[in-house]
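User: Predict the complex.
Assistant: Input components as received:
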Amino acid sequence: MALLSPAFILVRPQMAENIGAAARGMLNFGLTDLRLVAPRDRWPSKKAITMAAKALDGPVKVKVFKTLAEAAADLNILYATTARHRDLEKSVLVPEQAARDAQARMKKKQKPGFVFGPERTGLENDEIALCQKLITIPVNPEFPSLNLAQAVLLIAYEINHQGHQAHQGKLNKNLGALGVLGGKKTTPAPQAKQEELMARLINELDKNQFFKSKNLKPTMTRNIRAMLIRAEWTDQEIRTFHGIISTLTDKKKAAPSDL
Amino acid sequence: MALLSPAFILVRPQMAENIGAAARGMLNFGLTDLRLVAPRDRWPSKKAITMAAKALDGPVKVKVFKTLAEAAADLNILYATTARHRDLEKSVLVPEQAARDAQARMKKKQKPGFVFGPERTGLENDEIALCQKLITIPVNPEFPSLNLAQAVLLIAYEINHQGHQAHQGKLNKNLGALGVLGGKKTTPAPQAKQEELMARLINELDKNQFFKSKNLKPTMTRNIRAMLIRAEWTDQEIRTFHGIISTLTDKKKAAPSDL
């Protein structure tokens, strides 16, 4: 089984049973890092523990957070699972591609997170905007009724499966075709640092009347975030961009000293 | 979705709910030929129909048989799903391999069948003996508790997935050059526009003493360029970034009008 476990983040899950079933599906494929963002039902939950068939009795560790940003603070890359096509400039991967990409990153000590939305509504646009990549499970368009635990199960299965493939020496060959990995050995900055930068930039833009109307601001913000986080900046690059903002806004005192 | 459907055969299923959930999992991935061998509960079953969320209201066709041999009479090849390693001289495949093999056969007008045993006991040796190949889903050996409907879901997912792989570009119009699903069709801006933006940014930074020494400027410029062009911005995104620079440097007149 995998030595490292990517994090699975359930955002605002409605049913405790689904959390239990998700934990069980994760552990079936050796994954143990489960994070909950604002679950509707009280946590810990007896219903979840029963449904988990011992997966929640120790092997799967659960942490609860208030927001997706907090839950993802230490993660290097986020994959959002989404059924609908979104109008954002992000890669949309099938589970196999996402799992392969995540396995390659884990090999380089990066920690990925897979983000799942609430049962009925899915992730909100602002939550998806926090994620670098999208995953869509290619289901029958006339019968797309996958539930939360099933989506978790399929992604966990692919992560484990692609991990085995990688160990069989197939990884590099397959990656070559997809071109997922760059040549340079880089680790994207943790989400918390990416968020801090985005918040600062948006704030500066807002102060200077960049957003022409309140109606347009959410969409424009998401688009800016999408075009910037796509580059997967490192810690150093994040500092550089802080320096660029400081310079352009003429705040010399905040300019970085270690470029 | 697949034009042909392989048969899924549930042998002596115990719980009608599991039959319903299996039908649903099949239809999620476009499969519609379900066969039951000696189900314990009476068939048809209200519990199964409820659990199937409309999959059993027409799309998935169900036939009931007394023995596996009868259920499989018209099939060209049988894959038995089994958790344990069997002492039989048969190929043991992971789901991906089995699905790929089945897709190749369907292309040649062969009809494959996937055989699933009863919930607790699995298939009997005599039943396995009828099958040409075995499939084992590689689960965590310390927590192998996949249920019947989950096993059906994973196999159905792989059959559909390998079908897409096999017919890439024909079956699913959404599959792009990388096999990436959906998303927006993006074209990076021409190099000239990228260069124009870089030149403007570097010039603004230079005017405001961003580069602390002449020696460092070439390296810093290269690093900034690398971190920005990596995102492969579109024409629209290039305009957005021009707008960001204009706003931060407070040159409102140059702000783009078409964000």
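Residues 148-166 of chain B form the longest helix (19 residues).
Let me know if you want any component modeled separately.
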